[in-house]
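Hi R.,

Here's the chain you asked about this morning:
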Amino acid sequence: MTFSNSDKKILRILQADGRMPNVALAEQIGMSPSPCLRRLKQLEDDGVISRYAAILDREKLGLGIMAFVEVKVPQIAETSIVDLFKDAVRREPSIIGCHLTAGQFDFLLTVVAQDMTAYSALAQNVLLRLPGVQDMRSSFVLEAIKDTTMLPIA
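And here is the predicted structure, written out as tokens:
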């Protein structure tokens, strides 16, 4: 997909401020509001902009622990266990990210909890009991050096 310079500017600006009114967006890009809105709607219709969301501060919400959890699930010819695992992950609100990976472990989960006591309970009562889990390894975030949702727009 090819993007115009205006499209790229729209994407850069909206990644920083998704609630920016169209008039202000058009002004920053240097175009009139109607063409700017048409370009924006086209980016939405094409799925380049998939959704708008508020980014919350997890610590202010009492979620002081963030962990990356590597999970090993048996890779068998029949994918039913893996499918059950994926469905269970999608239903668990404390798991805020899940990625299928290549390497020693099969999945990388991003998990949040109030504190270590809550994480311990989550690990024992939920994570280790997810369908097919054979092994699990947790790494805890001590400090976020860079934590962004902004993608590089060339």
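One quick note: The mean pLDDT is 95.

Cheers,
M.
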